[in-house]
């Protein structure tokens, strides 16, 4: 019986290409192997250097996948792009100006999202000793964050990205569906991971508040999707917070919110900071050990 071929017949076992082999499904690898066999034949006769033949074969295979991913993202964001640019361009321009004035350390924790991030004025103190980058704007939704995420995060290097968006499901008939929010969140995570491959991304659970409590069942459905994304996506983590903001009878704790019963009070932020910091501590030390091992 002929011995089964694998990618290691063509490239060293510890090479990046061999590592890629272990992450691809069988049909995909068969396509690559067929190309490599052709190029191996040419290289045996001195017509094509081995390294070039291998890289070329992978390039032929992977380029359509990359192009398809870019097309999928463009289609996902197309319905939201015009409205997002009309409403939020000035806010994102302000971030660009801030980037020119501030020099952030590359080991900072970057926080992005809606008004709960923007209003968190004690973030630097609450998250110490972690340095922080705060990029929140009031009213942010998953739709416009999907449009602007590349512009917001890619000017920075960061140790981890943390996102909280509390809008999009408010009890309005025009609320986004869990499917829409899941697709947009996966896109946001992919942009960060495309920028910094193994950098952790944390998704903070949407907080229950009295102002939008009529929509709580829908919000819980979205929180479930955020949890699923974290469970199914490498280097992505969920930060559970909701149960801490509810009384034993299941209604929101009013003392953790300001008068509008939507935004966090000082006590609400102290609790939020504690929960977020604890989750960062759970994950980031293991991240350091993993990098040392490699």
Walk me through the structure:
- A five-stranded parallel β-sheet has the order 2-1-3-4-5, sandwiched between helices.
- Helix 3 (50-101) packs across helix 6 (142-153), helix 6 packs parallel to helix 7 (178-195) and helix 7 runs parallel beside helix 8 (216-232).
- The protein has 294 residues and is an alpha/beta fold.
- 55% of the residues lie in helices and 8% in strands.
- The protein is globular and about 45 Å long.
Give a topology summary:
Blueprint: H1 16-21, H2 26-44, H3 50-101, E1 109-113, H4 115-118, H5 123-127, E2 132-136, H6 142-153, E3 160-164, H7 178-195, E4 201-204, H8 216-232, E5 236-239, H9 266-293
Parallel strand pairs: 1-2, 1-3, 3-4, 4-5
Helix pairs in contact: 2-3, 3-6, 6-7, 7-8
Q: Care to give the gist of this entry?
A:
With 294 residues, the chain is α/β, with parallel strands linked by helices.
Helix percent reads 40-55%
One letter per element, helices H and strands E, the order comes to HHHEHHEHEHEHEH
Work out the strand percent.
5-15%
Rg over CA atoms: 23 Å
Give me the count of strands.
Answer: 5
The helix-and-strand class reads alpha/beta
Kindly report the average pLDDT value.
83
Tally of contiguous helical segments: 9
Q: How would you describe the shape? A: globular
CATH class of the largest domain: Alpha Beta
Key words describing this protein structure:
single chain, 294 residues, alpha/beta, Rossmann fold, five-stranded parallel beta sheet, 9 helices, globular, disordered N terminus, disordered C terminus
